[in-house]
Amino acid sequence: MARDKSLFTCSNCGATSPRWLGKCPACEAWNTLVETAPAAVPGESRNRLSANHYAGLAAAQPVMPLAHIEATEVARTPSGLQELDRVLGGGVVEGSVVLIGGDPGIGKSTLLLQLLDRLQRQGLPTLYVSGEESGAQVAMRARRLGLPDSLVPILTEIQLEKILASVEAAQPAVAVIDSIQTLYSDQLSSAPGSVAQVRECAAHLTRLAKATGIAIVLVGHVTKEGQLAGPRVLEHMVDSVLYFEGDTHSSFRLVRAIKNRFGAVNEIGVFAMTETGLKGVSNPSAIFLSQHSEAVPGSCVLVTLEGSRPLLVEIQALVDGGGPSPRRLSVGLERDRLAMLLAVLHRHAGVASYDQDVFINAVGGVRINEPAADLAILMAIQSSLRNQALPKGFIAFGEVGLAGEVRPAARGQERLREAAKLGFTVAVVPKANMPKKPIAGLTVHPVERIEEALALVRGL
Ligand code: TYD
Ligand code: MG
């Protein structure tokens, strides 16, 4: 029976227990015990290892100085889907494990089927393991993608041991597991999708990838809170973590690398969902701007830097009469940061908003984490408060500190040049980002403090 083989391990201190407990007996943390596969040595807890414990289990392996190890370049296969190759750091790396997360319906299965089809057509053996959809459903998607002749092999299976055996036998160069939450291992009694199952299945697949050189792509679902369902530990186990972002109501999709052992993090790939699948958008800088015919209050365009490319994103703010407990809501921007910026606005610019609801939004479902958005957020808030639009063709970027200082953003020149290229004419930027040579068509105002910046735009 699987049940009596189970073991529960505290994710906090590593202590084990034969049954589930609410509170860890060793470190007294609550709800930290998760089911794990049985320990290799029965009766021996991880906490009580003697000094020569491992000597009896295996022969010691030789160790080598770094200088004697040949540094080889990783073998990478570009898929030809340029935007995806860009996020992966140039292509699919042999033996790597990539986790792709995102909301249901955002396009994970579509993108991965397109990827495998491309690779298969290049002569690389692939395998698509579908735990969610039947073979017929996947075939239907392939037809929709205009790939009715696709030769990508499909396996519909959810039991881990069978999948491992099939992958090992098929020896593909790249395998997709759609999704990790549907898999279950016979070794554990918990249900598919539980923390223990997800972790166990991912660990086995990772081991297989490393042992055989097969690249494995795991699809992971995201919970309503935007976290990958299951443990965050998945992110630590794999080589790269990619997230799909974007508003399912708009056609644009961003794929962002939040971890990449073989490339740059925060690199993004931009796609448009079309009737025939995801198409790369090679020049995406203007897609997150809404097309107002007239300048409107509460809107400020930010030039943000996503990976290696500048991106222009409209930041919208609405400040409206609240009650005794006003709301602060943000979509696509950090809420804690908003609270901080409102405090800075009050203290250093004398603008109070404690009796007002404040809403901010980054247009198009894009998520912005960089502090360089601060200045544009405050400009949009002031504009909404005064019900006065910023001038047409206006952009801003820069971080705002608690002392009210405006700090420079990385690669300011590049941001300004991109804005000028898209026809923007006025910019307010941190003093250190002032370009040395003028940029044709763009008037740049350098600022050092937030009150100075806000006063300046009131006069524009
Ligand atoms: P899907 O890849 O199934 O999403 P996920 O695996 O992330 O859950 O995406 C499906 C959505 O994309 C669905 O709403 C239909 C739409 N779609 C298109 O618009 N065009 C297409 O060519 C395909 C295949 C799907
Ligand atoms: Mg899917």
Notes on the protein architecture:
The protein is α/β, with parallel strands linked by helices and 460 residues long. It has three domains: 2-43; 76-282, 3-Layer(aba) Sandwich (Rossmann fold), CATH 3.40.50; 299-459, 2-Layer Sandwich (Ribosomal Protein S5, domain 2). It has helices at 82-88, 108-121, 135-144, 160-170, 195-212, 233-237, 335-349, 374-385, 412-421, 450-458; strands at residues 7-10, 16-17, 33-36, 76-77, 92-93, 97-102, 126-130, 154-156, 174-178, 215-221, 240-245, 252-260, 268-274, 277-280, 299-306, 309-321, 328-331, 356-362, 394-396, 399-400, 406-407, 426-430, 443-447. The strands form five sheets. The chain has a nine-stranded mixed beta sheet with strand order 8-7-9-10-6-11-12-13-14, sandwiched between helices. A hairpin with a 2-residue loop joins strand 15 and strand 16 (309-321). The longest helix has 18 residues, at 195-212. Magnesium ion is lined by residues 108-109, 132, 178.
